[in-house]
Amino acid sequence: MTDWNEPAQVVIWPEAEGDEPQDRGTVTLREAVRTVRAAPRERRIWIIMADGHILRPGEVAALTAELPPDA
Question: Do residues 60 and 37 touch, judged by C-beta distance below 8 A?
Answer without folding.
Answer: no
